[in-house]
Amino acid sequence: MAETSGAKFLSQAEFARARGVSRKTVTGWKQKGLLVLDGEGRIEVEATEWNLDQRPTTYRGGVTHRPVRAKDGNNASHAEAAPKPAPKPAPEPQPRPAPLDGDGGQEDVFDPDDPNLPTAIAVRRKENWLGLHRKQIVERDGSKLVDRPAAEAAFFEEGRALRDAWLAWPARVAIEMADELKIEPRQLTPVLTAYVKKHLTELGEPPAGEFG
Question: Where in this protein does the record put region Disordered (predicted)?
C-alpha cells in the first residue's frame, strides 16, 4: 500500500491510488460516512485513515488494510485488537426428579391395564404389542408356531378316527376269536363291544364342543 501520511489532503482518486483500492471502494466509504472531507471536497487523510482503521479486522468476508489504531491526540499509534474472551461453557442440564405420588413419596406404579395411560406410554405399549404380533406371524410362517384352530381340528379328527376304529374292532375280530374259543360269535361280539366302550370311556372323550 502506498504511504499516505505525507499529504494531509488528497482527492478521492489520489486517495484510492494511495490505499491501493478502486474508486468504487472509496465511493462506498464516502456513502458510509467514513471519509472526512474539507470545504473543497478533498479527503483529510489522517482523520479518514483513523475512521477506516477502526473497522473490524475482518468484515463480511473482507479484510481491512491496516490494524486497528488507538488515537492519542493528533498522533495515531498501531495497537492490536483485544482478543475476544472465550465463551462460558453452557451449564449442564439438571436431571428431572422422578414423579412422586401424594402418599409415601414413591414413584407411580405403572399399570399396563390402565386405560388412561399417558400418551407416550400408550404409544410405546402399542408398538410393543405390534412387534410381538409380527414376531408371532413370522414364527408361525417359519413353522415355529402352528395355527391353534387348525391344530385342534386336526387333533379332533385323529381322535374320532381312532374311536371309530376301536368301535368297529369287536365285529371285525369276533368271528375269529369265537372260532378259536369254540363259542358263538353272536355271544362274543356284545361282550367285546361293551369292554371296548368301557375302555374308551376310561380314556376319556373330549367334552362336546371343545374342538368343534
Answer: 56-117
Strands 75-78, 58-59: pairing is unpaired
For the CA atoms of 155, 161, 162, 166, what is the dihedral angle to 10 degrees? 160
Cβ atoms of residues 150 and 197 within 8 Å: no
Residue 159: Cβ within 10 Å count? 14
Number of continuous H segments (helices) and E segments (strands) in the chain:
6, 6
**Residue 11 amino acid letter:** S
pTM exceeding the 0.70 threshold for the entire prediction: no
Could you read off the pLDDT tens digit of each residue along the chain, which spans 212 residues? 445 556 788 888 898 898 889 989 988 888 888 888 888 889 998 888 888 888 776 655 455 555 444 444 444 444 444 455 666 676 676 665 555 444 444 445 666 677 777 888 888 888 888 999 888 888 877 766 667 888 888 888 888 898 899 888 888 888 888 888 888 888 888 888 998 888 888 887 655 555 44
